[in-house]
From TrEMBL:
Protein name per UniProt: RidA family protein
Taxonomic classification: Archaea, Methanobacteriati, Methanobacteriota, Stenosarchaea group, Halobacteria
CDD domains referenced in this protein's UniProt entry, alphabetically: YjgF_YER057c_UK114_family
Species of origin: Natrarchaeobius chitinivorans
Any Pfam family matching the protein: Ribonuc_L-PSP
InterPro entries: RutC-like_sf (IPR035959), YjgF/YER057c/UK114 (IPR006175)
């Protein structure tokens, strides 16, 4: 299943980029992972900082992807919700680059919000992946 990641000439290419400007995918099945946070299997929040919560949230995303037969490299779209976008860029972005890999970054949007579902939630991630059957 081909996934093509494109950063077209003429588009801003920010330093330390954690996204691809355009992603095209041809696959048999789409996988939509609901908003994921840094809860453990007992529903307890893991981490008190954006960095800690990002690490656990990415672990949870990977668990969801694996359950559906996908990997981080299959992700074509990422939406990041955070209560502190500036801190996320500093502390969360490095984990995204490590998780997705420099060559397989998804199209991504970072959205700063006033709050998430509970006050202790600092980061929430939604992903879409495409795989062949």
């Amino acid at each position: 299943m081909p996934i093509e990641r494109i950063n077209p000439d003429g588009m801003y290419d920010p330093p330390n980029d954690v996204l691809s400007q355009v992603v095209t995918a041809t696959g048999d099945r789409q996988i939509h992972v609901a908003g994921t946070i840094s809860e453990d299997e007992d529903g307890e929040i893991v981490g008190e900082t954006i960095e800690e919560q990002t690490r656990k949230t990415l672990e949870n995303v990977e668990t969801s992807l694996e359950a559906a037969g996908a990997t981080p490299e299959d992700v074509v779209r990422l939406t990041i919700y955070t209560v502190d976008a500036e801190t996320f860029v500093a502390d969360g972005d490095p984990h995204l680059r490590s998780f997705f890999g420099e060559e397989t970054l998804p199209a991504a949007t970072l959205i700063g919000v006033d709050h998430l579902a509970r006050p202790e939630f600092l980061v929430e991630l939604e992903v879409t992946a495409v795989v062949d059957e």
